[in-house]
Design goal:
The complex is a heterodimer of chains A (234) and B (591). By secondary structure, chain A is mainly alpha-helical. Helices cover 74% and strands 0% of the residues of chain A. In chain B, 61% of the residues lie in helices and 1% in strands.
């Protein structure tokens, strides 16, 4: 459970930092009548959708941290046989990086009021994300053909389950991306476009980060790191 | 003392918060059924949760009939008994209490108490309810599928949950897991709303430290639930894989009916870790809203400011954080390393500190207060006593050496029913008596309310105190029939019959409550906008019940904390949060 504990510690630090800005030591019974006297203690001025995304990322992060926790506990059992990672995954990773870059491009373009750049960025990002998903399906296909079925070993089970969970999150992101693109197409005002594009970009970077961590785990790169953590804890 | 000078902006324009684009219902369907108004969604959540809760109540009667009079009711066999306990536990913990506190009270109270027009994502909020309803329907459907609902116990421990010896192995367990997954998806949608609304949609002047403790409780519980429910989600998905795809996440190598099963190498303990990483915070997900609500009930009905408001807030946050590092105290008998047990016993007992702070502060709020023994107050007092009782047996069970012999006995059942069954339900009932006038514009009948309280309160003690005792005698939980066991004296059977009779009586008292809810809707005394003379914003709405958008034209501005009761020199014994500070001249004129 070390991965999730680590994740919770990060969340605790963030929440603690935010709470420390909120004057939790104030004596509200003595502050009768005051309004706006303490800037920064009122409602958060960020758009609701952005805070909502932040909270959602914490939830999704917790989900993946738990998958990773389960993975690292299960891999110590005797029957674990590490699975070869299809080389297609490297291509997929590259495509997902491109997807993130394209959205970053759209984000920058939105800030420069460059509507064409936004559309190009969104479409390129969407197309490469779809390519990534197709690539993941092909990787599943290759593994199946090579005899690595979902139930033949826990390593395989985790591979299929975690890639599926990541893919489903990306598909959810594609729905949001599709709506943002449609909004740009219909000619929404720039502030609205900027927000939508920014939220998609943040989500994409998050999913890229999750994917890189998962990849490191599945290819065994992070084994040493996990080992060190385990030794520290036991 | 921070003395803030009189503010000339007292009648300043409100609404620094940008006006939200309110969704406007166009038809009867979008107003009452597919509504995006948090108040309607709250009522939908509450009614659905209560309906499925009634099913769980009936299941508890059936279990008690079997335990009290074994062999008398031939239609309850061992399999059905296990199915009843499983469904009773799962429904009560997740589909009733979690949904009612967060989906019901959260939806109704958060926007009103922080001075918002609605939740920030109304459409997502509506989806949240409909997915919850779907989860409830999937759960209820397991009663009608071949093999019936799962009988794995509410903890669904593998491997037995997946094996054919457990009832409901075909469909029951699959649908249970699907229903849980749906519930978590639906809850996440609602939870995002509750958190972001508190963060972003508070009205002008409503700093965090001016929020009523109800909002603090629900807010913190929601944050915890958002982080803890993924653990149940992961566990459910993995068990679904084991059951349907034949993977071995949790399933060890097994021989069933002489046949080697396809599973091998899995770890049931892994499931326990995941389950309790959700399961323990879940206790506080239910308890924190109860803590918050009860603080407001006590303060309002004792006409006194809450004692130690800051301490109360810190305790809520502290309990929320601590509750994530105690989960393995549910696993003392799983063969864990003794040092692990020591660590978790320590963290478990540390939680007693913030919890005890809260209890002291409630008692000190009551101290020399102008206590009105209204029905909400009675329930609040009932809660404090019950929570202390349940908490004390928690000290027993938190210690490894005491827990090991008591584990899996009725003592545990009695403990958690006191602390997270009866205690939160006391708050739910008190809160309904308290806020029903705001929701309907009518008071609940007082006489029926008092009858309901006394029967429920005394009855609950007559059920669960003897249950502690038979647990100490060694009567195991989850047993359909204890039969003639040498170490269990015959008097246990008499006691079991007594508990059953009390359970039936307490159950019927709830029918009086339901009758009261319906009767008062039509015949209750009109309440006016603020029948309890309370300070918090929900009682200051221009209309009762609050209209669409809650606040008429302008959002309220908050000038003070939520607990200005019996302020010396004030004209009335309460000052609403949105009342500006009186000018010095006026203050001088007051006697």
């Amino acid at each position: 459970m070390s991965a999730i504990i680590l994740f919770m510690a990060v969340i605790t630090v963030i929440v603690g930092w935010w709470l420390s800005q909120q004057r939790l030591t104030a004596k509200p019974w003595l502050e009768e009548g005051s309004i706006d006297d303490f800037p920064g203690t009122g409602a958060v001025t960020l758009p609701a959708a952005k805070i909502g995304l932040g909270v959602f990322l914490a939830v999704a992060g917790s989900l993946f941290a738990l998958f990773i926790s389960a993975y690292s506990m299960r891999m110590n059992m005797a029957d674990w046989r590490t699975m070869p990672v299809p080389s297609l995954l490297w291509f997929n990773t590259g495509v997902l990086v491109l997807s993130s870059i394209a959205l970053q491009w759209a984000h920058v373009a939105a800030h420069r009021n460059n509507m064409d750049g936004v559309i190009v960025g969104l479409c390129a990002g969407g197309a490469s994300a779809v390519t990534f998903l197709i690539g993941q399906l092909l990787a599943w296909q290759q593994l199946r053909a090579a005899g690595y079925f979902v139930a033949s070993n826990p390593a395989n089970s985790f591979f299929y389950m975690m890639t599926a969970a990541h893919g489903l999150h990306l598909m959810g992101g594609l729905v949001a991306l599709g709506r943002a693109t449609a909004r740009v197409w219909r000619g929404a005002e720039m502030a609205q476009v900027r927000l939508s594009v920014e939220l998609c970009t943040i989500y994409w970077h998050f999913l890229l980060l999750v994917w890189l961590v998962l990849l490191g785990l599945l290819t065994g790169w992070t084994d040493d790191f996990v080992d060190i953590c385990r030794r520290l804890l036991t | 003392m921070v003395d803030v000078p009189y503010d000339a902006r007292a009648d300043a324009p409100p609404a620094e918060v940008p006006e939200v684009e309110l969704y406007h219902p166009r038809s009867w369907w979008t107003q009452y059924v597919f509504s995006q108004d948090a108040k309607v969604i709250a009522i939908q959540y509450s009614l659905t949760a209560s309906a499925i809760g009634l099913v769980a109540l009936v299941l508890s009667w059936l279990m008690r009939l079997q335990l009290g009079f074994p062999g008398t009711f031939s239609f309850i066999d061992a399999s059905q008994y296990l199915q009843f306990i499983t469904m009773h536990g799962m429904i009560m913990v997740i589909y009733l209490l979690t949904a009612l506190f967060l989906g019901g009270f959260g939806n109704y109270l958060i926007p009103l108490m922080v001075g918002a027009r609605d939740m920030v994502f109304p459409y997502v909020n509506m989806l949240s309810y409909w997915i919850y309803l779907l989860a409830v329907l999937v759960l209820a459907s397991t009663f009608f599928v071949p093999g019936g609902p799962t009988g794995a116990g509410w903890t669904l421990y593998p491997p037995q949950a997946v094996l054919s010896g457990t009832p409901g192995q075909d469909w029951g367990i699959v649908l249970m897991l699907v229903s849980l997954i749906l519930f978590i998806i639906g809850f996440t949608m609602g939870g995002l709303n509750y958190v972001v609304t508190v963060l972003q949609a508070r009205t002008r002047g409503m700093t965090l430290m001016r929020m009523p403790l109800t909002v603090w409780g629900i807010f913190t519980a929601t944050v915890m639930a958002l982080l803890a429910f993924p653990a149940l989600f992961v566990a459910s998905v993995m068990m679904l894989f084991d059951r349907l795809l034949g993977t071995s996440f949790f399933m060890p190598a097994l021989v069933e009916m002489g046949q080697q099963m396809k599973y091998g190498g899995g770890s049931p303990i892994l499931f326990q870790h995941l389950f309790w990483f959700f399961g323990h915070p879940e206790v506080y997900i239910v308890a924190l809203p109860a803590f918050g609500i009860v603080s407001d009930l006590i303060s309002t009905h004792a006409r006194k400011n809450i004692f130690g408001y800051r301490m109360m807030v810190w305790a809520i946050v502290g309990i929320g954080a601590l509750s994530f590092v105690v989960w393995a105290h549910h696993m003392y008998v799983s063969g864990m390393h003794p040092k692990f047990g020591f660590f978790f016993a320590t963290t478990t007992l540390i939680i007693a500190i913030p919890t005890a702070i809260k209890v002291y502060n409630w008692v000190l709020t009551l101290w020399r207060g102008d206590i009105h023994l209204t029905v909400p107050m009675l329930f609040a007092l009932g809660f404090i006593i019950t929570f202390v009782n349940g908490g004390l047996t928690g000290l027993f069970l938190g210690n490894v050496v005491v827990d090991v012999p008591l584990s899996d006995t009725m003592f545990v059942v009695a403990h958690f029913h006191m602390v997270m069954g009866v205690a939160p339900i006391m708050v739910v009932l008190g809160a309904i008596y308290h806020w029903y006038p705001k929701v309907t514009g009518r008071m609940l009948d007082d006489w029926m309310g008092k009858f309901h309280f006394w029967v429920t309160f005394l009855g609950a003690y007559l059920i669960f105190f003897p249950m502690h005792y038979i647990g100490l005698l060694g009567v195991p939980r989850r047993y359909h029939d204890i039969g003639d066991t040498s170490f269990i004296p015959a008097s246990t059977h008499t006691l079991n019959a007594f508990i059953t009779v009390m359970a039936l009586i307490v159950g019927f008292a709830q029918m009086v409550f339901l009758f009261n809810l319906v009767w008062s809707l039509f015949k209750g005394r009109p309440s006016g906008g603020n029948p309890w003379r309370a300070t918090t914003l929900e009682w200051q709405t221009p209309e009762t019940p609050p209209g669409h958008g809650n606040w008429g034209k302008e959002l309220p501005v908050v000038y003070r904390w939520a607990y200005d009761y019996s302020v010396p020199g004030a004209a009335e014994d309460f000052i609403p949060q949105n009342q500006p500070r009186a000018t010095p001249a006026l203050q001088g004129a007051a006697p």
